[in-house]
Amino acid sequence: MSLQTCLVLAVLAFGTLAGCAPAQPRLPERSEADLEAELADSARRMLDELIEFRIRVKNVEHALTTAAARHCGDLSRPRAGAIVANVESFEGEDLRSTIARQEILGEPPTVLHVVPGGALDRSGVRDGDLVLALNGRAIEGGGQFAQSVLELSDPNARLEFSRNGERSSAMVSFDRSCPIYFDLVDSPLIVPWQVEKFLIDVPHGLLQIEDSDDVLSVALGHQLAHALFDRRGESESESEDRADRLGLMIASEAGFDVRVAPDYWERVAREYFWLILPAEEVSVWQDRKSRARRFDQWPHRDIARRMALIRAASLVRGSPGSGVSAGPD
Amino acid sequence: MRVLRTTGPLQDTEARNHRSIRLGAALCAITALVSCTERTPPSLGQPPGTPPAVVRETERLLGLALDHWIENIIRLQRVSQKIRLAGRDLCTEHLSPVLGIAVSDPDHLPQALLYAAQQRFGDAETLPVVAVYPGFAGERAGVRVGDEIVLGDDGVKGASDVYAPKTPPGEPVRLTMIRDDERISLSLDHDSGCEYYAVLRAHEVVNAWATGEQVIFTSAFMRYFPGDTELALVMGHETAHDIHFGTGVFLPVRASSYSIRAESAADYVGIYLATMAGYSLDPDPEFHLTLARNINRLGRRGYTHPMAHERIVALRETLAEIHEKRMRGEPLLPTVQ
Q1: What's the CA gap between B167 and B142, in Å, rounded?
Q2: Are residues B176 and B61 in the same domain?
Q3: Which of A27, A46, A285 is facing B292, going by the closest CB pair?
Q4: A128: phi > 0 → left, psi -120 to 50 → alpha, else beta; which?
Q5: Is residue B259 part of a domain?
Q6: What is the CATH number of the domain that holds B103?
Q7: Quick one: which of A143, A37, A142 has its CA closest to A86?
Q8: B110, B219, B298 member nearest A42 (Cβ)
Q9: What is the mean pLDDT of residues A38-57?
Q10: Which are the contacts of A267, defined by CB distance < 8 A and separation ≥ 6?
């Protein structure tokens, strides 16, 4: 080997060692077929979990809003008691293509879930049935079905549906309920919040940390009570106290065991300590559709003062159906 | 002598036998937002006439929140310090001693918790040790949970000097502590690891990121992913980013710091780091889907990171590669070209 070659080799070796040519990781090869199979599988798993979350929220929503109906007076409206969906009910291209490819949802809106004991359940409608028409009016989407039920002046209506390709119809006597709706949203928060007069956002984070529908009923009941009973001009503590008291009452009347309430609010306090002691330095953001919110605009502050009432109310309402009724003040 | 209040599960686990722990609460705090501002613990700030029961409840809840914060720190540091040791050979000159202890750190404690920390630890200028991990230098030298590391001595100005001391290689780390009201001095014969240590931040976005010096995890991340293995996967990924920033190694040519190529490389190196640290990653993970669901980004293009299903396939193949290296008895290092 000549001296020249040696020098070249030495320079090359030095260059590599000194990082002149940065070492790059050699990533494993990935086959297109593997990627495609994984995408379908991921979408399917994600869809299953989303549907499971929606079912949990729907069951609790139905129980709470029907139990609260008597407090809503003229506002009360019929409620479907089911998740009826079509492809448009889900966001995301790959979720939608999975839904289409696996024929999970057909052209007419499909019943994904019937709330046990609800109106559709009592009328014999089952998961997988296709919803065709309500009182002769064609139903083309999940949202349109919910809206049509909401607008019924008579809660007794004729529902046309098909099962295994066979058309049938049934008289449905829809339950009366407070016209509040819960919408599942992508957010890590563990407290729901009100976005519109009749709409409450339920973040994934709450379902992520809690398997118990009792806990869900406490969180949702509180926000439902805010939506129904908050009044202009009242102080924040007045409105929180009423939401705590009525929320627990409604959840208890709906059949949930609300003795879990102190634990839930303690968990909220542990995670969101700025609700215990406001300190302006922490900035904590809430992201929904890029709407940021500083923590000092969060609801449910003043949590330490509220705990005594929450503890007492959760005990009074402890056993499901204890029937203690205070009514709205 | 002040006896630690016992409020929550913390006392049942790693912080048992805390005694007389004090905390330098009036420290010059360095946060990402305010550099070097004097912070004083807030008073309870409740209006006059607040019933004593409400004051007590406020203190109790703040104690629970502090326990929870410290539990998160203990978990974060446990995973972080294992990953840092595992990455020793990849971090080249960006090394520091890894002592295997966690402290309650007033510099990174949220304002609202300073009050609770002062109530619990007192206001002396010390860093209370809240965890000592088995197999590390701290345990070998006899550091105990409840010891208070004295600030100002041995060049210790804050938690960063405990997590990544600037001791020259080959020299032991000296720490002065208060234990049972007595000053003791310990010499820690340490191992070296990557200097990039982990920091917890209160934030309601499920996220973690690398700064080039540290790895930051949000409180929402810690809640969303309660397992050490999932934490290790992301810790590895972020540490790989820090290695890119610091050494230039593993940075794909012509890749900006935030490109799908760079993120894939960080995933790849991160899986190695987590495996080298002793975590057995699940080849069929929920993690990516949970993350994708949270940001509703399954199969959505135009995002800085690879898509969930791409990351899952890459994870599986990287784990297979690691398995083969193990079978062949080769060192567990990322393959480079």
Answers
A1: 19
A2: yes
A3: A46
A4: left
A5: yes
A6: 2.30.42.10
A7: A142
A8: B298
A9: 88
A10: A190, A209
Q: How many residues does chain A have?
A: 329
| Structural domain contains residue B140 | yes
- List B residues 122-181 in contact with A (Cβ-Cβ < 8 A): none
Q: B256 lies in which domain range?
A: 204-327
- The answer to the question of residue B229 being in a domain is yes
Contacts of B207 (CB under 8 A, 6+ apart): B218, B220, B221
Distance of CA A57 to the CA centre of its chain: 5
Task: Determine, yes or no, domain membership for B81.
Answer: yes
pLDDT for the residue numbered B6: 30
The CA distance from A250 to A260, in Å, is 14
**Does residue B283 share a domain with residue B217?**
yes
CA distances from A270 to A181, A275, B183 (A): 28, 9, 34
User: What gap in Å lies between CA B80 and CA B88, rounded to an integer?
Assistant: 13
* Band of pLDDT at residue A222, cut at 50, 70 and 90: very high
Mean pLDDT on A172-194: 90
CB A69 within 8 A of CB A135: no
- Among the residue ranges B42-46, B134-138, B170-174, the one predicted with the least confidence is B42-46
Nearest residue of chain A to residue B206 (CA atoms): A188
| Model confidence at A196: pLDDT above 90 | no
10 Å Cβ neighbour count for B223? 20
One-letter amino acid for residue A8 of the chain: V
Largest CA distance in chain A: 100
pTM for the model: 0.84
Contact A46 B269 (CB under 8 A): no
Pairwise CA distance, residues A89 & B25, whole Å: 52
Asked whether residue B317 falls in the same domain as residue B259, the answer is yes
**What is the distance between the terminal CA atoms of chain B, rounded to a whole angstrom?**
60
The dihedral region occupied by B278, where left means phi > 0, alpha psi between -120 and 50, and beta the remainder, is left
pLDDT-derived band at B252 (thresholds 50, 70, 90) equals: low
Q: What is the pLDDT of residues B10-45, one digit of tens each?
A: 222 233 333 222 222 222 222 223 333 444 555 666
Q: Are residues B284 and B160 in the same domain?
A: no
Split into its structural domains, chain B has a count of 2
CA-CA distance, B134 to B247, in Å (whole number)?
30
Of B45-59, B199-213, B240-254, the one with minimum mean pLDDT is B240-254
Chain A contact present for B203, CB below 8 A: yes
- Asked whether B291 and B241 are in contact (CB, 8 A), the reply is no
Distance between CA atoms of residues B193 and B86, nearest Å: 7
Contacts (Cβ under 8 Å, ≥6 apart) of A211? none
The Cα–Cα gap between A143 and B45 comes to: 48
State the Cα–Cα distance between residues A297 and A318, nearest whole angstrom: 32
Cβ separation B223–A93 shorter than 8 A: no
Domain co-membership, B225 together with B187: no
Report the CATH architecture of A36-67+77-177: Roll (2.30)
CB contact under 8 A, B113 and A281: no
- Return the SS3 of A287: coil
